Amino acid sequence: MKKNTLIAASMAAVISLSPVFTTNAFADVNTDIQQKDAKLNDLKSKKADLQADLSSLVGKLESAQAKSKELQASFNKSAEQLKKLNADIASINKRIKEREAVLKERARSMQVNSNSNVYLDVVLGANNFSDLVDRVSAVNTIVDSDKAILDEQQKDEDALKEKSAAVKKEQEKQQKAIASYEQQQNKIEAQKAEKEAVVAQLAAQQATTEKEKSSLVAQRDREAAAAAARAAAAKEATTVQPVAATQTASSSTSSNDNNSSSSSDNSSSSNSSSNSTSSSSSKSSSSSKSTSNNSSSSNLPAPTGSGYDAMISTAYAQLGKPYSLGATGPGSFDCSGFTSYAFRSAGISLPRTSGAQYAASTKISSSQAKPGDLVFFSYGSGIAHVGIYIGGGKMINAQNNGVSIDSLSSSFWAQSLVGFGRVANF
C-alpha cells in the first residue's frame, strides 16, 4: 500500500514539474520570437523609408529627363540657327571676296597708269561744258561708289564679327546646359543605386529573420506538443495507479480473511494438527522471505507491451552509431539525445538534457529498477550522463565510444552511479 502511495506521489511530482519545464521553455522561445518580430518591424520601417526616398528620386529623375528633352529640343533649334548663321557667314565672306577683287582690279589699273592722272585726264578731255559737267559727275559717282564699297565692306566685317560672337555664345550656353543635365542625372542615378543596394540588404536581412522566426515558431510548436504528450502520459499514469492500489488492497484483505479463517480452523484441531499448522506456517514465512529477497534484486523481468517493445527495439537498433555532443539522431547521438529518441518511438517525450530527465523522473532504488528505467551518473557536479537500464546490471547508452551496452558493475560506471529513475510505466 505504501509503495502504491509513493508511486502516485512521484507521478504527481512529474506532473507538477512538467509545467515548469514547459513554461520556462515557452518563455525563452516566445521572448526570441518577440525579438525577431521587433527586428522585422524595424527592417520593414527602414525599407518603407528607403522606398519613399527612391520614389522621390524617381520623380526627380523623371523631371530631369523631361528637362533633358526640352534642352535637346532647344539644342536642335539652336543647331538650325547655327546652320543658318554659318550660311550667312559664308555668303558675307563671298561678297567680301568679290568686292576685294573689284578694288584690287581698280588699284592695279591705277598702278599701271601711274604716269597720268586718270581723273584729270577724264575732265580735261571734255568736248564742251556740258560734257565737262557729265564727266565730273561720273568721276564723283565712281569716287562715291568706291567709298560706299569700303563702308559696306566695314559693315559686313562688323556683322560677321557680331554673328560669330552670337554663335559662340549660344554654343557655350548649350554646352553648359547639357553638362548640367548630365551631372544632375548621374548624381540621381548614383543616389538611386545606393538606396537600391541598401533596400536589397534589408530585404535579405528580413528574409533571414523571417526564416529564423519560422524556426522558432516550429520549435515552440514542437515543445508544446511534447509538453502535451508528457502531461497526457503523466495523467494516464496517475489514473492507472489508484486502480492498481485498489486491486492490491482488495487482494490483501482477501488474504487476511483467508488467514483468519485458517487460524480459526487450526485452533479447533488436535495437537498434531496444531503442530502441522505450525510447520506449514514456518514454510510460508520462509517462502515470503524468499519472495522479498527476489523483489529487492535488480533482475526484475522486462515489461511486456507494445510501448516497451517499441522503445527497446529502437534503442537496440542504434547500437554502433557514433557519439556526437548535442546530437539527437538518427545518425548520431549524445546520451540524452539517445534516450529521448528511443522513448519517442513509444510516444513518450523526455526533456532534452540528462539533468532535466533526472528531475522529471520518479526516483527508485536499485532493487526496484527494471528494464526500461533510466540510470543516471555524475562526474562530480550535477547529473552528467543517462542510459536505459536493460536488466542484469547492464544498460544501453550513448557514450564516447558510440551507442553500446555497458555493465553498471564496471569500476568507471560504478563510481559515477547516482541512481535510477522511472519516466514510464510500461
UniProtKB/TrEMBL annotation:
Residues 228-303 are annotated as: Disordered. Pfam families: CC_PcsB, NLPC_P60. Keywords: Coiled coil, Hydrolase, Protease, Signal, Thiol protease. One of its GO terms (biological process) is proteolysis. Gene3D superfamilies: 6.10.250.3150, endopeptidase domain like (from Nostoc punctiforme). Residues 33-102, 150-210 form a coiled coil. Residues 228-299 have a biased composition (Low complexity). Residues 305-424 form the NlpC/P60 domain. SUPFAM superfamilies: Cysteine proteinases (SSF54001). InterPro entries: NLP_P60_dom, Papain-like_cys_pep_sf, PcsB_CC, Peptidase_C40. Belongs to the peptidase C40 family. This is Peptidase P60. It comes from Listeria booriae.
